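Example 3.
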Amino acid sequence: MLEAIKNRFFSWVDSRAPKQPSTLLKQKNIYILPTRYGWLMLGILILILVASTNYQNNMGFMAGFVLLAVGLLSVFYTFRNLKGIEVRCQKPASVFATENATLPVQLINNTKSERAGVGVGFAKRRVLYTDVGEQSKNQVELSLKTHRRGMMDIPRVTCASIFPFGIFEAWSWVRTPYQVLVYPKPIPCPEPLVATSSGIEEGQTQEKGSEDFHNLRDYQAGDPIKQVMWKAYARERGLYSKEFEDYVGEHQTLSWESVAHYEKELAISYLTDAVLTAEGSQSVYGLELPQQSLDKGQGPEHLHSCLKALALM
Amino acid sequence: MNVKALPITRQGLIPLLIMIQAVVLFPLWFYIPFWISAVTIALLLAKYGMYRQGVKASRWVLLVVVLLCVGGVFWQFKTLNGRDAGIGLITLMYAFKLLEARSYRDASLILFISFFIVVTAFFYSEAIWMGGYLLISVLCILLGLVALNSPKGVQGIGSLGKISGVTLLQAIPIMILLFFFFPRSSAPLWSMPTENQAGSGIDDTMSPGSIGALHTFDDIAFRVDFEGKVPPRSEMYWRGLVLSEFDGFTWFKEQHTPIRQELELPMTPTYQYRIQMEPNNRNWIFGLEDLAEAPDGAYLFSDFTWNRRRQTTQRFIYSAQAYDIDFSQRPLTEFQMNRYLQLPTDSNDDSREWAEEQRQNHQSDEAFIRWILSYIHQGEFYYTLSPPVIEVDSVDGFWFDTQQGYCEHYAGAFVYIMRSAGIPARVVTGYQGAEYNPYGDYYIVRQSDAHAWTEVWLDDEGWRRIDPTAAIHPSRVEEDLRSDASSRDGWMEEFGSDVGFDAPEGLLQNLALRWDAVQNFWSETVMGYSQDMQFNWLRKLGIERHQYRYLGYGLLATIILAGLIFGYLVLRGTQRLEPVTKHYLLLLKKLQQQGVACDRGMGPRDVLQLTRDTSQKLYSRAAPALKTYITMRYQQEKLSPEAVKQFKQQVSRV
């Protein structure tokens, strides 16, 4: 019952907060309620008014009504503190499962008033506070715990403020269109992964080809020392690098079959670790998965596509 | 990036909380028991020391001290209940809370409870300066809340503190309206336990020295507004109590009963007046002689005094009518006759014999009274505040030996002599005279005006007031008392005429009177604002029934109106976009109208790209404005008005 009400409420909230990279906080998407100290203040106010009535103490009434008026005004001040702020969520970088993903959130204040104590977080109770000066912006990095590989939805981002008096809390739920790609958690495999025979053969031929140098070019910083044409340098003709037709290093194809006898998630973790090891040792590697196979390659982009394939398997 | 939570450990927050507590507790220190004040001050200092040294209070030590203090409160008040014990306890707990404050929660609790502590001081004083102090305290608490709730903490007060002052200023008009409309009740919600407070003022016993002791008190007993005619000051006898039981040394109040039915005595109304009485923590209230119909909330008693059912612990305002009552129609009953002739037989024998003897020499009671007064006038009787002490037989000692005394000596001795001579008589205590305040057109009666006089019963006339002190020869009146004595009842005109001293009228006194007029407005109109006054102005508006309903409408209207006005004032600021953004939004709107599917969420570079993809012609027109916007957005220094103007022109060309 309660769950149903909650769901209905949040579907109503979501209908007012479309998934967009940038949200302007305005009347439509700002909510406001007393904080627990606001309720405490209401209690104190009632106590003061009852005592003043009983003791016929007009001074007490004055104090009570000042308090009531401050409470009333603080609704507007707290609401104003959020109104007009633009919340822009950046695309979060991919992380490995169980690591924390970071969601950068920019708060942009294009209005003429300073906004103090604007909190951003995934829950009202856990927000990071920051000040946003007039016509300036400020960035907050939210960290989000990941559990499983795959595309992870980013929960509603709460933008909250209790400034100036902590009597009321105004907040807004902002939804971002982005998702976090969570790579599988790498776990080293207890037994060496055997590369498939075809892979080894292919690797051998490739390795042969790389022995023949293709042409010469001017040395560029970062070229491996092995490729420098020392003979030419010795003859004082300058530094040249030999350019090989193919990659240097070990060649391997990591295949699903080699880990298929493990439990699926564990197998994926083993492969992930193998991919990372291969990338770390600058080898050329390919990946063969039941539904997908990736050609051999190297470099961050290749690594990303391999990890993505594993994450979404 | 400046991301912080809101911990209490931020620099300067603890000293700020200590300061706020000191401000809030300050007025209470004058009223609560000394040791509680001392403990709270010590706790504040201890907290500051601990803050400087960076140490935390041990929970065990704290617990022991808290228990000791609770014990102390119990020992002081013999209870933990009731107003004074409650306030003592809450102030102590309030100070202890800060000592162990560790989190945002603790600080928040302290600040919100401060509002209540501010109010507790008003149980002790409703003086005008407390009103000012209320605003100062609330301002301090609001500043504390701002510091607590903004990441910059105390450092932020400089730039953000303004909001507290602005809020308070905006709160004042709302407060005034709510104060005006909030329905007051005519009776307390629950009966309050009577506090054993020593009230200053006239007591229900009179012994030598008891009224003289009041002479040094300049405290105001009550203020009087006359409607229409004002009696001369010499006629202002403010009747309080009748004392008719005598034990040889002290006079006591008689057992009196309320007069329930209408008085059937011929009465002529004389003066109409309104009294605003300061609390005296007693049941009796005062009225201009002769008293008849009791004001609301009081009863007329058989000795023609007024009593309230409960003690006057708050300022009490009542209207009354003075009368001339002709008592001659109703002779004294035998019971009354005995009561007003009653004398202890074991003391003051000399006076009794002397009085009996002297009565023989006179034809009538009246002639005897006249002779006694002239005896006082011509004899060596002195009017002084510092008479020699009389140990026993107060009448004999005064009348034959010392012949020096204050009004209670004269009144007591006079009644004793009358009774000895067979004339029914009684002592009346109250106040005599008043100071006129021309700035507020009212009279002030002070404790120093406390007085005792007498009433004697004359068969053909009834009760007649006689003030024996008025008979003392002016040359034998102590300097300080001359102005008092000069304004007394001159039943014997020949005595009163040759004294005429007026209090010096100086600048200081003028200022004092003006100040008292302001205070009178404060206490009568503001602090005395009551259900009566509410119903009065409602009646003037033609509302005779359902007053609470109309007051409720007033409250509701105030809150709605305040919400509309201040909502508009406060939120107006956020709608004013700075010009560059405003023009950029205008530009986006124009582009959308011309078929570019851009929205606010897109960066300006994306919009530029999208425009190029949509229409080359539009791109050529919009590009300068977009490019200017991009450079302006990412440049750090402040934009010149010219640049803004140029951007505006570029936008208008799209």
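Residues 490-504 of chain B have pLDDT under 50 and may be disordered. Chain B touches chain A through 74 residues (CB under 8 Å).
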